[in-house]
């Protein structure tokens, strides 16, 4: 469940006790929950549609095993706090490499060739997602540094350094096909 925004318009970093494991950000949610709670205006619906298209493109590339963290103004109440619409969705995809790209050289070559999926400036233009990909098949020290970096960045507001929460969705979501095919993302 996506918790309510706090008084400053962000998701709380935890619900209940700060020491509890459950009720802590990143909050595991379905895409249906994201749609119902956050795709509430034409601008937000357009961003959500971009997220669906980005996820479909990742699956078409063979990235199906992992999850994504969603953050940024899309998961904040910027309409109230900043009197504007969200501009994009911040996305970090934590994923295992497709089977045919398990070797490092093949993976890095494919990433270079597919800037539409792996270069944030291009994903932002094509999908309205400020998107990054973390290779879960990478060496553990590098992976730890990446997780620490992205968690630190996503769990604080840039302007105020205030703690905030984020969302986590699986790369394969049973509701996603229904959202895309029934046009729920553009209602």
Could you describe the 3D structure shown?
The protein is an alpha/beta fold. It starts with 26 loop residues before the first strand and ends in a 6-residue tail after the last helix. Strands 1-5-2-3-4 form a five-stranded mixed beta sheet. The model has no long low-confidence stretch (mean pLDDT 90). The protein is built from eight helices and five strands; from the N terminus they run E-H-H-E-H-E-H-H-H-E-H-E-H.
Features:
187 residues; alpha/beta; five-stranded mixed beta sheet; 40% helix; 14% strand
What is this entry, summarized?
This protein is α/β, with parallel strands linked by helices and 187 residues long. The chain is 40% helix and 14% strand.
* Percent of sequence in beta strands: 5-15%
Round the mean pLDDT to the nearest integer and report it.
Answer: 90
Radius of gyration, whole Å? 16 Å
- Measured as a percent range, the helix fraction is 40-55%
Oligomer: single chain
Number of helices: 8
Ranges with pLDDT <50 over ≥5 residues?
none
Backbone shape? globular
Q: In which order are the strands of the major sheet placed?
A: 1-5-2-3-4
Structural class: alpha/beta
First and last CA, distance = 22 Å
Largest sheet at a glance?
5 strands, mixed
Total tally of structural domains: 1
Pattern of helices and strands: EHHEHEHHHEHEH
Total strands = 5
